[in-house]
């Protein structure tokens, strides 16, 4: 019986991991992969830069979450939203495949922007559904799987899809991405969401958005500050890693393998192992140490750049940074699930995701200004100092995290007996 329960949980985890992967690949391909194709077809730097505005919808997840939370169905509320939005995104990708790089640029921008809206929007019911269906003991693992899926999506979207485009033409990447989405829909449609939440009699009427209630949760205010600051400084260092490695004299092809493929693989492994470590030791205990690990990784990269170290030291520093990225992102995603209230999964998740994306976009702008003013070492020193403050904040937030994750690390069999409700099934 316990083996069947574990198998069902793994099927759920893999389904949500696949959904995170196929929703992330189109955005990454459009933002990070397609600019290379654009340059080959004569797009200017300004045109390519303006095209990055297609990623703007991610900042407004809190608004996209409102209709998902408010307009509910008696049976399979989040499941129906996820099915509809994923299907629309797949159809839009098929439509984009019928265009060409020589199509009017405004048309391409419109299609890419619409894809960004749908991918961002679909992410909300998918995560809300995961929060609903997964018991507390599975949420940290879900954060690790999601982080690993995003690292894999970065490898595929910014690398593999470019190779596919060069080998088979413009249509192939879009059709492959659409096929990945369509592959998940039958499994998503067979989830029994209503079985888990039959007690939610309010599912038949609109739920009001209550963001003030989110902030009234025990420990929510400290958690928000940690959410805003825990990842962006690492993310800024990762964003500028490739230019830094090039400036240190590393060949471009080696940079692509080290920071692109190798870093992505390390991030995947760190996401999975980091989530396992958090699950065993507890989020409240591990969180400060993960932030200390992030500081160590940044210090290693700072030392390598400052001392103009050998290639080996640069590679080690890059992989330390990828390790910290994977571990911290899996922790952040897992904790976001714990701070999403029952019956408010969509709007709570949307609010947290918007805040997470906002600082992830703003911090690199400040880091870039510091890079221009003080050079690579000066920028990295600034990121180290900021991360030192995050370490102090993580220590202060330990009690808040412990309150929110009190049942996160109890054994699965005890959790199941305590909850005394059937596990969700996916065929």
From TrEMBL:
A GO CC term assigned to this protein in UniProt = membrane
Q: In terms of domain of life, where is this protein from?
A: Bacteria
Instruction: Answer yes or no on keyword Transmembrane helix.
Output: yes
Bilayer disposition of the protein: Multi-pass membrane protein
The subcellular localization recorded is: Membrane
The record's keywords, sorted A to Z, are: Membrane, Transmembrane, Transmembrane helix, Transport
Q: Which Pfam families match?
A: MFS_1
Name this protein carries in UniProt? MFS transporter
